[in-house]
Design brief:
Two copies of one chain form a homodimer. In chain A, 21% of the residues lie in helices and 41% in strands. In chain A, the strands form three sheets. In chain A, strands 4, 5, 6, 7, 9, 10 and 12 form a seven-stranded mixed beta sheet that branches. In chain A, strand 4 and strand 5 form a beta hairpin. The first copy, chain A, is globular. The two termini of chain A are 30 Å apart.
């Protein structure tokens, strides 16, 4: 297989946009785009305000929350995360979500990763911060939030991954980066 | 901070479901759910058929594709992936997508991870397979697909992460797992 070195990628120019839905968290639009052969097709696009998450290590354990995920119809164990408020800096949102959901206060947050969760159909970007310096504050859940806070070892994280209790991208990436840190001294 | 050990999580019973949109890739519904205090709220839910991806290593390089992502308005470098066809086994989809997008044929695919990309609003699950045994077949893109195939080293992957050219969850997780493999001998 030869690599393609002289090719450029078609940039899918928009012919029209149909706005389908605007909700509390997401909105949906369908863009009609031009294809290189002169034809057209559609792209279904979810708009999301972005979110922030925290990989917080305390006493060599990862701080996680168990919560019900309606789209999955089951509870999941995940690192603390939540969507950005309007104009909120991601690092501020990360610290806020950690304290609201778990009662822990993060110090010296460092940006670990920023990534799109599902670039085929959504613009959601997730900023993930790391800290191993936390102190105890005050949990303060949103009215429609209900979580159980846990501190887990790498071995417990692996057991939760095997059982499917941990099965979301951000928490798998957090655990994998934490293993790199423990085994090699580097998070990346 | 004490851990909560005697608590159970509220399972958000559905009161009603409003179907908003059914598209080629995703559908959207809004569920009204009961809250513990007797009130109600809504959950916006994207249904997705699921997808499969491949971490394919050839000559100690990762096989990736550069493609335009309309929701992001830019090109991205990602591991090969695509959504499951109706009733298709994820491992079959993974092998099919690798060959269609890159022309490489995977041998001895092993399930590396299965995870939800964005469990707060979507049920999309992504099955990710690993192989370091590939042979050369025939690229066969969908009519509306346009990609550039690349083989990259870990150092090149890190440079693409730093520049933002690699910035999706599945590819970051693939690169992080590949680093674990190279540095510790284990993918997980």
């Amino acid at each position: 297989m030869k690599e393609d070195t002289n090719k450029t990628i078609w940039n899918e120019p928009t012919i029209s946009t149909e706005h389908i839905f605007t909700g509390k968290v997401i909105s949906l639009q369908v863009d009609t785009i031009a294809l290189p052969d002169g034809g057209t097709t559609t792209r279904e696009i979810i708009k999301h305000p972005g979110a922030a998450a925290v990989v917080a290590i305390h006493d060599e354990k990862l701080i996680v929350v168990e919560q019900y995920r309606k789209p999955l119809g089951k509870t999941q164990i995940e690192i603390p995360a939540g969507k950005l408020d309007p104009k909120e800096e991601p690092i501020v949102a990360a610290a806020r979500e950690l304290e609201e959901e778990t009662g822990y206060i993060a110090h010296n947050l460092q940006l670990l990763h920023q990534y799109y969760t599902s670039p085929g159909f959504a613009d959601e970007i997730l900023y993930t911060y790391f800290t191993n310096e936390v102190t105890i504050g005050q949990q303060n859940l949103d009215d429609d939030e209900d979580v159980i806070v846990k501190l887990i070892t790498i071995e417990e994280a692996d057991a939760y991954i095997a059982s499917g209790d941990i099965s979301d991208a951000k928490t798998l990436l957090a655990v994998t980066a934490w293993k790199l840190l423990q085994r090699t001294g580097s998070l990346t």
